[in-house]
Design brief:
With about 260 residues, the chain is mostly helical. It has helices at about 5-20, 45-50, 50-55, 70-75, 80-85, 105-120, 145-155, 155-160, 175-180, 180-190, 210-225. The protein has eleven helices and no strands.
């Protein structure tokens, strides 16, 4: 056999082996590759992965403020909304999603979320012509006057201090410990319409809350927060019940041995 024929045969064999590699066991089949997380800029996907757990599907019925509230989106400007998404609230439950705040989102992804919230749920300036309390204030509240505001505007639904009512007590110590000033202020102004809580215009018939009244009632609510939320624990002697200080008997496994 001539050398050229041998070389050609070897080349053909090598090509056959390479072609066979396409069918090797375990090799992924053809199809789209999983995108790099930082490359995702689709609002619906970003919202579902990062926001819906707290703010709910479609921006409502979540534990946190409803993002599909036109009043909320008219109250907060884009720069502030972006800051909230990127940096969160320092003393509240809202975390920062930007990398600079310990999050995982890029600046482009933060912008996509802010733009998507506004595009999907904003309805122009629905607050035009209204005397709306400011989104943020640097003024200290009058705690004593805030108690009067609470009694007039809030107690009929949320109960007086230390009591419960049909809408639940917002003076619960654990609740207040989790809420920062801005979160409480925002809720008092825009309400929670998906849960039946009115905004600042509907708490007192014919008398929308003023900026000062909002500031004062928030200050009063925060003044009700206990120094040690969740305390005291149930007594160790109370009916022999288990408590964080008295976990009760050590459980046994199926062989009678104690863990």
């Amino acid at each position: 056999m001539r050398p050229g024929t041998i070389i050609s045969g070897l080349a053909l064999g090598a090509l056959a082996l390479l072609a066979g590699c396409d069918n090797m066991p375990g090799k992924p089949g053809p199809g789209p590759e999983v995108p790099v997380p930082s490359s995702i800029t689709n609002f619906n996907q970003l919202y579902a992965q990062n926001c819906s757990g707290c703010h709910g599907d479609n921006g409502q019925h979540g534990a946190a403020i409803a993002l599909n509230s036109p009043e909320y989106l008219a109250l907060i400007d884009d720069a502030t909304l972006r800051q909230v998404v990127a940096q969160g609230y320092k003393n509240g439950l809202m975390p920062g999603f930007a990398a600079s705040a310990g999050g995982l989102l890029t600046d482009e992804q933060i912008n996509a979320i802010v733009s998507g919230i506004r595009t999907n749920w904003g309805k122009g300036n629905v607050l035009a012509g209204l005397n709306v309390p400011a989104y943020r204030t640097g003024k200290p509240g009058d705690v004593a006057h805030g108690g009067q505001v609470y009694a007039t505007a809030c107690a009929r639904c949320h109960g007086a201090a230390g009591t419960e009512n049909q809408k639940g007590s917002i003076l619960n110590g654990s609740y207040l410990a989790l809420m920062d000033t801005q979160s409480l202020r925002t809720i008092v102004i825009v309400g929670r319409p998906e849960w039946g809580m009115p905004d600042w215009r509907g708490d007192v018939a014919g008398h929308p809350l003023t900026d000062a009244e909002v500031t004062d009632v928030v200050a009063w609510m925060q003044a009700q927060a206990p120094a040690a939320p969740g305390q005291p624990y149930p007594s160790e002697q109370q009916n022999g019940a288990a408590s964080p200080m008295n976990p009760g008997p050590v459980p046994a496994n199926g062989k009678g041995d104690k863990f």
